[in-house]
Amino acid sequence: MKGVATKDVLTKYLWHRASNLLRAEWHYLLAGIGIERFTHLPVFVSVEPAGFCQLSCKECPVGQSHNVQSRMTLPISLFRHILSELSSYVYTMQFYFQGEPLLCRDLPEMIRLAHDEGLYTIVSTNAQALTEERANALVQAGLSRIIVSMDGLTQASYGAYRQGGDVKKVIDALRFLREAKTEHNSHITIELQCLLLRSNENEWSDFKRLYRSLGADTLTFKTAQFYNFENGNDLMPTSERYSRYKKQKDGTYRLKRSKRICHRIFTGCVISADGKVLPCCFDKEKRYEFGQMTLDSSFSTIWHSERANLIRRQVLHSKSLPICANCTG
Asked: How many CA atoms lie within 13 A of 271 on its CB side?
């Protein structure tokens, strides 16, 4: 039975992971009263298997640039080193950042290695490369959750955002995943995710009615991020209730922002396909890297570096940082 780690694996690092989680949450609470401590380690990490994508989604810098130099995948040797550095204290490993993870041929092996360490594993994909063979490989590797992006039920509504994508491939991928889950008696969660866009708002009720018949276990609606939102965007939903932006009296838009301090800066980070350790998924241009992971580097040293702590302080004390400008957290 794939998807559930053995009891021995789950208890291997139980004390280290639990104590680290408690420290991370305690330090977050302390930050709320002005006391800064960063002596813990991350609770989750996002590892980017591939730094490129085959689509040209309107609001994705990777999809829009198609930079040849960025067409790289994370070496399996470096991933093994990263896993050995992190597995004793993280609970969750997400296999995505900006690129399309299924374009990395070593992805199933990475998932298997993380699963064997008792980690909860998640992949988020556009599903364009999710063939029947790849679906079986992911399920057999022990993947815990897969998020399948589908921003429209017809080619017209889907293609309004996912430029270059084929909605039929997504529908087929969901079927392949469902069949693989059944065949291998897996506990994998198949999550269908839909961005809330004007182009698909007349289909939201259909998504709620059809997601299970399409093969998904759960359905998630997600507000869309736009880089140039100040003057509005043609893809913004008609109702502000389903947008992360609010229209002001002068006709411009502002971000709906939570008043709480950033939680993610305490609990996680991103490691890109080229090995850069980043504070969070909003650092899409890699401006605020903590350091560079190599086969000889120590993740703990990078995480606790003065540069990393300086960036955390900047995030805590100023919401004007570019990477915070589009974050509702």
From this structure: 25
Angle, CA 60 vertex, CA 57 and CA 62 arms, to 5°? 105
Is the model more confident about 4 or about 289?
A: 289
CA dist., res. 3 & res. 138, Å (int): 10
- Residues 280, 287: contact at Cβ < 8 Å? no
Are 94 and 120 within 8 A, CB to CB?
A: no
**Neighbour-count burial of 74, counting CB atoms closer than 10 A to its CB (0-12 exposed, 13-18 middle, 19+ buried):** buried
CA distance 212 to 2: 21
> How far is the C-alpha of 197 from the C-alpha of 203, rounded, in Å?
10
- In whole angstroms, what is the distance from residue 316 CA to residue 308 CA? 12
Give mean pLDDT, residues 89-99: 96
Distance of CA 283 to the CA centre of its chain: 12
Sign of CA pseudo-dihedral 43, 112, 190, 102: positive
Q: Is the pTM of this model over 0.85?
A: yes
Residues 6+ apart with CB under 8 A from 312: 36, 38, 265, 266, 279
* Residue 59 banded pLDDT, cuts 50, 70, 90: confident
| Three-state SS at 227 | coil
The pLDDT score that the predictor gives to residue 78 is 98
Kindly report the length of the chain: 329
Distance, CA of 154 to CA of 168 (rounded, Å): 9
**Closest by Cα among 213, 207, 219, 126 to 173:** 126
Q: What per-residue confidence (pLDDT) applies to 35? A: 92
Lowest-pLDDT choice from 232-236, 251-255, 319-323: 319-323
CB 305 within 8 A of CB 289: no
Separation of alpha carbons 252 and 120, rounded Å = 41
Task: Compute the distance between CA of residue 239 and CA of residue 182 in angstroms, rounded to an integer.
Answer: 39
